[in-house]
Amino acid sequence: MENTNKDPKEVFEGYNEKYDEKLMINHDYDGIRELDNPPPPWLMWLFYLSVFWALGYAAYFHFFHVGPLQAEEYEIEMKEAAEKYKTNDAETKQIVLLTNEASLNAGAATYTKSCAACHGTEGKGGIGVNLTDDKWIYGNSVKNVFEIIKNGTSKGMTSFASLPDKQLIQVTSFVLQKLNNSKTETDTTINAEN
Question: How many domains, the chain?
Answer without folding.
Answer: 2
